[in-house]
Design goal:
This protein is 52% helix and 13% strand. With 297 residues, it is an alpha/beta fold.
Length: 297
């Protein structure tokens, strides 16, 4: 299945939820205060978030004023442009060798995303190694080992309950010795009331900085698209402990509120780097703002 078709299918629920409302709005004719108020309500109901919805609506109003465009069709074109531009914040280009730390709460699809990432880089003929840095959750290392075996990639792990920093240290040493292209580091996913695990993220980050062998360093947070605005609070908390470079958004195919992508970009100036568009190992794709907006509309 082609990439565009995968994204089209993944966004089906979001598109269906928006299309009827937007079609009705843009067929209304006059671009008056009621038009802009209704647009703002439509965006908010699609989990774009209040702040971002207000900003997009204000930007559209201003662009219409400056361009002297009066038709609903021209307003629709301008709205697409505004949304696409708003999604192109701080784009991430992954250069090799790369160390990618993966963070996120339990249940968002973190381990599965790591497995899919490993597959993605393997298809690019890259040497990949996984690091089982989640030594807290029972079975986490075993799950990651299954993904390593499935992808036929190396994995560095210790026993359950081991010091996560020591596992990461060994992973870095292995990657340096074997000239690994991509080192993907899993981390403990518990968030609520587990300050020690959050502080452990900072420790892991410092070890990566100290032992870095000249690799490019990235940190991606995995978010579940079906949780909507709750995803924003997760980013906020993780950013207190570690620098986040981008988002891996899972379960985009399972929600009618894909507008959260816009809220993420605008609230935190963070790009969505990869999106989960299905259940198979192949269904993690680089995010493309133009494809996303074309499909939404």
């Amino acid at each position: 299945m082609g990439l565009f078709k995968k994204i089209m299918l993944a966004l089906a629920k979001t598109r269906e939820a928006l299309k009827r409302k937007l079609d009705a709005l843009f067929s209304g004719g006059e671009l008056n205060d009621d038009f802009f108020e209704e647009l703002e309500n439509i965006l908010i109901s699609s989990d774009v978030g209040v702040n971002t919805s207000v900003k997009i609506t204000q930007d559209l109003r201003e662009k219409i004023r400056k361009s002297k465009q009066k038709t609903a069709e021209s307003a629709k074109i301008l709205l697409k442009q505004i949304i696409e531009t708003s999604l192109q914040v701080n784009p991430v280009e992954i250069n090799f060798p790369a160390i990618i730390t993966i963070v996120g709460v339990n249940g968002v699809g973190k381990t599965t995303s790591i497995g899919k990432l490993a597959n993605y880089f393997k298809k690019q003929k890259k040497e990949v190694c996984l690091v089982a840095g989640d030594t807290f959750r029972a079975g986490a290392s075993d799950q990651l080992t299954e993904w390593a075996n499935r992808n036929k990639v190396k994995i560095v792990k210790h026993s359950e309950g081991a010091d996560a920093g020591a596992v990461v240290f060994d992973g870095l040493a292995s990657a340096k010795a074997k000239k690994t292209d991509v080192l993907i580091v899993d981390t403990a996913g518990r968030l609520h009331t587990k300050t020690n695990l959050m502080e452990e993220l900072g420790k892991i980050d410092r070890i990566i900085d100290r032992e870095n062998y000249g690799a490019n360093k990235y940190c991606f947070i995995v978010l579940d698209a079906t949780t909507g605005q709750n995803a924003l609070s997760q980013i906020k908390i993780f950013k207190e402990y570690i620098k986040i470079d981008g988002i891996i958004l899972t379960k985009l195919d399972g929600t009618a509120k894909g507008g959260v992508v816009l809220a993420i970009a605008n609230e935190f100036n963070l790009p969505v780097v990869f999106v989960g568009v299905g259940e198979t190992i192949e269904d993690l794709e680089p995010f493309n703002a133009k494809d996303f907006v074309d499909n939404i509309f």
